[in-house]
Protein: Ly6/PLAUR domain-containing protein 6B
Amino acid sequence: MQILNFLVLCVFHFFITLKHRTFAKNVNFNNVRPPADPTPFPNSFKCFTCEKSSDNYNCNRWAEDKWCPPNTHYCKTVHHFTTHGKSKSVTKKCATRVECHNVGCRHHRDSGHMECISCCDGMICNVDVPTNHTNAIFNVQRSHRKSDAHRVTALIPTMLLTTWILFIL
Structure:
């Protein structure tokens, strides 16, 4: 009878651990506020999105709250501003890796304005606008092709220790 209880406990503990591991994998711990609606697909994310807003405040304030398409993995921000730092336009969108190849700042001599482009990954990571070479970068925080094998292997000793302690009690 004790062996049966032990096996049931092991299976129960295994499913609880598996459930929590799956949940933790989908949580973006850098996000200030969790999304209210469920994610449409694994590793989905949101970006601030606007087209030629007058400045960063208006872009973020009126940004449409929607999930990025599955073929995108980054948030891209294009900031046009005067040489004195006054914003002329801000564009933010979901982007592919190819769309993020031209990050950095450029001076447009014909119009006399600066253009800075940055890309980042993560839930609503494009809050700020790039203003110089220091922050006009391709900022990648996470890997998009992770293996879960190490997570399962790490759970086995924890599960065994817990069941052993419960078996003794």
